[in-house]
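Long-time lurker, first post. I've been practising inverse folding by hand and with some scripts of my own, and I keep getting stuck on stretches where the structure tokens seem ambiguous. Below is the full token string for one chain I'm working on. Before anyone asks, I'm not after the true native sequence, just a reasonable design that respects the backbone. If someone could post their per-position residues I'd love to compare against what I wrote down in my notebook.
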């Protein structure tokens, strides 16, 4: 038995402010899925005393990849952890040690020279921050953890600090003055899988004409799906391990992750007709299973063995609630990839889709449920949208010119694309109505675009305006990327020349606009976000959400501050 990846922490719903719970996952090679590994997860306070109540149950197998060929074969194990909260934030450490009373291996066996199963050294002890009673978690958000091609990756590796932003985040976490992070949010492109397309037999497939690619008789060779799944698993083991980059934070802070195209391959969902190709379906299925296992924390199939996934068969919308004494925070992570496709209608026109009908139904059901608690206490809703709702707009003429170039999928990939205009408006209206009916503040956090940016959605429609406010507004904060370098000045000037940046007037009395980040409209350097809810300092104040860009080189003094609306009952919201 050997460790292939981990440990990795995953966030859970927090219905109570008295405990803090999460999962700890390990991906182990040479492991029997029917027999839990002889490892004991041990939690301690900083003074060395044990927290014996932290891990009451043995680990569960949540993904069985033991049948894969090659070094990727293994089993993903999950430990459930629950820690009591105290009056102030506390730091605890954990480590894996040989399980006591193991029927097959003794303590001596674990310590034997050359045995791959042995207690990990003190350097592997991780520091986890447990929030105080009734407190809300301080969070860090990131996106674009890699590079899409070998040339760009090479330029990253030649940097003085290739993972400088991750090192800065880790330093903030370990520094006690601000308290560290209790939640890690991934906004998409947590891995870059584009290099997998450069392996046989995909190289030969990519040379073929479109008509042959779509021919179901020209399908992938036997075992292609399993081969791709092994490659995706190997990619996670490579990119998410080590002592620098993302790995130290995965081991210290419970995470919530949504995905974007590079977690599958560049432009997935915007290649139109190719989405129905059997080759692409196999690639998607492999990427989806690896995403479930390592980003969601376990396969969604009951038997925990690999099973085919098809686009639009399921969605990965996630909703989590964090309950606080004065304020609640709800997290909604949209899935903008599993249902993204286009369909040719009977009259020959194409209808593009970002979110599947099933995800829209699930989101509507959650909004209705969320509104039932309106007026009970102040609330914030943070929406993770891997693609910004508000950003540079490439108009119909630019998209038409780009239709026959490599830019085509990049044009279709954006919420601002003309083909997504109706669905984008629907989402904005839904979020504005959510803010009013639930009497909450809605903030959109996004990534993807390799720059930091700030957008604003406004509405003068009475159906959107909460009681006691003059207008409805939703802030959008974009942070990208934490590893991927920003476009150079010439590239970015070219994009801005081709795009619209002015205020955009939309139906239903809505407007969108871009606002400055510091002295400039865009933050053109690597960055990530820190988020915290600050308690109200008086009886008339309301708990505010503070969002701050943490840039690689520039110290930004500005922050985005979001305040929930005055409390009102659902009946008041309906009448206003």
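-- Answer (accepted) --
I ran through it position by position. Result:
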């Amino acid at each position: 038995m050997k460790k292939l990846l981990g440990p990795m922490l995953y966030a859970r719903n927090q219905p109570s402010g008295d405990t803090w719970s999460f999962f700890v996952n390990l991906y182990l090679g040479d492991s029997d899925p029917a027999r839990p590994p002889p490892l004991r997860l041990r939690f301690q306070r900083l003074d060395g005393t044990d927290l014996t109540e932290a891990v009451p149950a043995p680990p569960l197998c949540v993904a069985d990849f033991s049948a894969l060929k090659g070094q990727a074969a293994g089993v993903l194990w999950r430990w459930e952890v629950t820690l009591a909260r105290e009056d102030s934030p506390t730091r605890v450490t954990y480590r894996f040690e040989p399980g006591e009373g193991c029927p097959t291996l003794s303590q001596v066996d674990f310590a034997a020279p050359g045995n791959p199963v042995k207690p990990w050294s003190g350097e592997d002890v991780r520091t986890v921050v447990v929030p105080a009673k009734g407190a809300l978690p301080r969070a860090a958000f990131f996106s674009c953890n890699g590079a899409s091609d070998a040339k760009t990756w090479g330029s990253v590796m030649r940097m003085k600090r290739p993972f400088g932003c991750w090192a800065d985040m880790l330093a903030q976490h370990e520094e006690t003055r601000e308290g560290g992070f209790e939640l890690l949010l991934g906004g998409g492109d947590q891995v870059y899988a584009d290099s997998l397309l450069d392996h046989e037999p995909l190289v030969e497939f990519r040379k073929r004409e479109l008509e042959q690619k779509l021919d179901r008789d020209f399908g992938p060779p036997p075992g292609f799906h399993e081969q791709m799944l092994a490659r995706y698993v190997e990619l996670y083991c490579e990119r998410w391990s080590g002592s620098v980059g993302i790995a130290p934070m995965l081991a210290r802070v419970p995470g919530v992750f949504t995905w974007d195209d590079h977690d599958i391959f560049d432009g997935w969902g915007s290649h139109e007709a190719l989405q129905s190709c059997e080759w692409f379906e196999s690639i998607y299925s492999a990427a989806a299973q690896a995403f479930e296992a390592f980003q969601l924390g376990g396969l969604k199939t009951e038997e925990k063995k690999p099973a085919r996934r098809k686009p639009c068969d399921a969605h990965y919308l996630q909703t989590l609630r964090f309950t606080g004494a004065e304020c609640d925070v709800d997290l909604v992570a949209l899935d903008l990839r599993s249902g993204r496709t286009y369909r040719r209608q009977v009259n020959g026109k194409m209808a593009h889709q970002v979110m599947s009908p099933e995800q829209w139904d699930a989101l509507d059901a959650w909004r209705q449920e969320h509104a039932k608690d309106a007026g009970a206490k102040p609330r914030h809703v943070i929406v993770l949208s891997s693609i910004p709702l508000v950003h540079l707009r490439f108009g119909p003429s630019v998209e038409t010119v780009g239709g026959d170039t490599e830019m085509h999928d990049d044009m279709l990939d954006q919420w601002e694309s003309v083909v997504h205009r109706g669905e984008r408006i629907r989402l904005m209206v839904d979020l504005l109505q959510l803010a009013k009916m639930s009497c909450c503040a809605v903030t959109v956090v996004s990534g993807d675009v390799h720059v930091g940016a700030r957008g604003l959605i406004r509405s003068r429609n009475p159906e959107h305006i909460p009681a006691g406010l003059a207008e409805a507004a939703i802030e959008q904060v974009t942070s990208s990327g934490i590893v991927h370098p920003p476009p150079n000045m010439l590239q970015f000037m070219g994009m801005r020349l081709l795009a619209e940046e002015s205020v955009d007037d939309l139906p239903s009395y809505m407007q969108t606009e871009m606002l400055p980040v510091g002295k400039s409209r865009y933050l053109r350097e690597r960055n990530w976000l820190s988020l915290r809810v600050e308690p109200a300092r008086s009886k008339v104040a309301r708990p505010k959400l503070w969002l701050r860009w943490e840039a690689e080189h520039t110290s930004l003094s500005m922050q985005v501050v979001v305040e929930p609306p005055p409390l009102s009952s659902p009946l008041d919201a309906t009448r206003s």
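A couple of notes from the structure itself: Residues 465 and 471 are 5 Å apart (CA to CA). The longest strand covers residues 19-29. Happy to go over any region you disagree with.
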